[in-house]
Structure formats: structure tokens, C-alpha cells
TrEMBL record:
Phylogenetic lineage: Archaea, Candidatus Altarchaeota, Candidatus Altiarchaeia, Candidatus Altarchaeales, Candidatus Altarchaeaceae
Domain of life: Archaea
Name of this chain's protein: Zn-ribbon domain-containing OB-fold protein
Domain ChsH2 C-terminal OB-fold: 51-110
InterPro entries: ChsH2_C, ChsH2_Znr, NA-bd_OB-fold, Thioester_dehydratase-like
Length: 133
């Protein structure tokens, strides 16, 4: 069976943490926005690749995962505030629930998210890992 990395190039922000920055007011957006809500027509948007550093704002352990996630339950899902400002929801891997705290420093890594056995489709995306200090 041939496996297809479905989202590999189609949706670059899913694996590369690409958002936008408004050149006018210097605000960062993730996911990317076309128009800056602060500057409206005066704003000018540029593509921006986030450095992937951030900290945990809140987190939870998921025991009843969505279809495709069954083999990795339970897993930790967190709201992460990126260094540049925007926040996003992502999985934290390679750690236990007790290791995660509000304010924990994290770094993004590129990992396989879902493997659909029947169709042979693998989805890739960003996940986060605790930064040991
Ligand atoms: Zn702006």
C-alpha cells in the first residue's frame, strides 16, 4: 500500500507554524490572517514563520480521543502561547501529565499526527515538547 503524506504541502502552516505579521502594528497572527483586525485597510500583512518557542497557558488530558487518535490515548492537549504573542492548541508529547505546568516552556517539533490505517493516509503537523532547563 502506498502511503500519502496528504497535508505535506497543501497546508504549510500545519507543519511549519507559518502565520502572518502586520508590518504596520507588528502584531503576529496564527493561524495566518489576510487582514489585520487592528489596522484594517492601513495594515500590510507579511508571511511569518514562528520560532516555535512558547509556554503553556492551560492543559488537559484527553481520554476519549477523536477517531485516528485511539492508539495514543491518553494524550496531553494544551493551549500554548507562542513567544511572538498568538496562542494555539496543540499536543504536548514525550512527557507525563505531572510534568506539565502552567507556564512550562515548550518548543515545537514536527511529528506525525494521525495515521489512517485503511486509507494509508498520514497527517503531519506540529506538536510541542517540554523544554528542560
Ligand atoms: Zn496591524
Amino acid at each position: 500500500m502506498t502511503r500519502i503524506a496528504l497535508n505535506w504541502r497543501k497546508i504549510p502552516q500545519r507543519y511549519n507554524l507559518i502565520g502572518t505579521q502586520c508590518v504596520t502594528c507588528e502584531t503576529y497572527y496564527f493561524p495566518p490572517r489576510i487582514i489585520c483586525p487592528k489596522c484594517r485597510r492601513k495594515g500590510k500583512m507579511d508571511e511569518y514563520k514562528f520560532c516555535g518557542e512558547g509556554e503553556v497557558m492551560s492543559y488537559t488530558e484527553i481520554y476519549s480521543p477523536l477517531r485516528g487518535f485511539e492508539n495514543i490515548k491518553p494524550y496531553i492537549l494544551a493551549i500554548i502561547k507562542l513567544k511572538e504573542g498568538p496562542s494555539l492548541t496543540a499536543q504536548i508529547i514525550d512527557c507525563k501529565m505531572n510534568d506539565v505546568k502552567i507556564g512550562s516552556k515548550v518548543k515545537s517539533i514536527f511529528r506525525k499526527i494521525v495515521e489512517e490505517g485503511d486509507e494509508g493516509v498520514i497527517l503531519y503537523g506540529y506538536k510541542f515538547k517540554l523544554v528542560k532547563d
